[in-house]
Design brief:
The structure is a single chain. Among the domains are: about 110 residues, hpI Integrase, Chain A; about 35 residues, no CATH class. By secondary structure, the chain is mainly alpha-helical. About 50% of the residues lie in helices and about 5% in strands. The longest helix is centred in the C-terminal third of the chain and has 19 residues. A three-stranded antiparallel sheet has the order 1-2-3, with no helix packed on it.
Length: about 230
């Protein structure tokens, strides 16, 4: 894909596609960016006209900044991606035709330009594990849209988030292996800690252990209400 992109003769067309992948913007949103939409001090870009009607500000990744700095500005044209005619940006037909050449040359004729946006979203959620972050970056107005397309990519993060509590459960039971836990074999018995204390794994005393401890001492009332 990168080789096919680099084969495009227009510097601005090549930069457009790489920026689309780095920012996850929609086609027309990126085409409409002007120099005045760039905040060089904060390194953000403002999308004035978006699909959901709300202006959207995006942070610029280092690579996006470098592409922006490398693009020459055309005199009399404020667009970041200037077109052939004075004062105009690259046109939608120009981008569509270029993308058709790129995907055919890359051997992926079914890949849509919008798939670049989806690719960025999937990468972000796999790195950060946050659907809310992806929704904010892609400017989704409905979190259900984010969940529909990207929730499956967060599975690994959710699974990892449960590993540490799982270890805490095993430590509280005094066993190292699930087989021992299921068969009621304990290595050193149930370890009790003072109320509110934290074990070495960083988790407080398991609630079930606290409840059992208080029940033996006859103090179930207050704890039951707190639950």
């Amino acid at each position: 894909m990168a080789r096919a992109l680099n084969a495009e003769s227009s510097l601005y067309v090549r930069a457009y596609f790489f920026r689309a992948l780095l920012l996850g913007t929609r086609k027309r949103e990126l085409l409409q960016i002007r120099g005045s939409d760039i905040d060089a001090e904060r390194w953000t870009v403002r999308l004035a006209n978006t699909k959901n009607g709300r202006p959207h500000e995006l942070p610029l990744a280092r690579q996006a900044q470098e592409i922006l700095n490398a693009l020459p500005r055309e005199r009399g044209n404020s667009h970041v991606f200037p077109g052939r005619f004075e004062g105009e940006s690259l046109s939608v037909p120009t981008i569509d035709q270029a993308w058709r050449r790129v995907r055919i040359a890359a051997g992926v004729p079914d890949v849509r330009l919008h798939d670049l946006r989806r690719t960025l979203g999937s990468w972000v959620v796999q790195q950060a594990g946050s659907l809310a972050l992806v929704g904010a970056l892609l400017n989704h107005s409905d979190p259900r849209v984010t969940a529909e397309h990207y929730a499956r990519f967060a599975d690994a993060h959710r699974r990892t988030a449960l590993d540490a509590p799982g270890d805490a459960v095993m430590n509280a039971a005094g066993v190292q292996h699930v087989r021992a836990l299921l068969h009621g074999v304990r290595d050193d018995g149930l370890r009790e800690a003072p109320n509110g204390a934290h074990s070495a794994d960083g988790f407080s005393t398991p609630w079930v252990a606290v409840r059992a401890h208080d029940h033996v001492r006859g103090h179930t009332g207050a704890r039951a209400i707190e639950e």
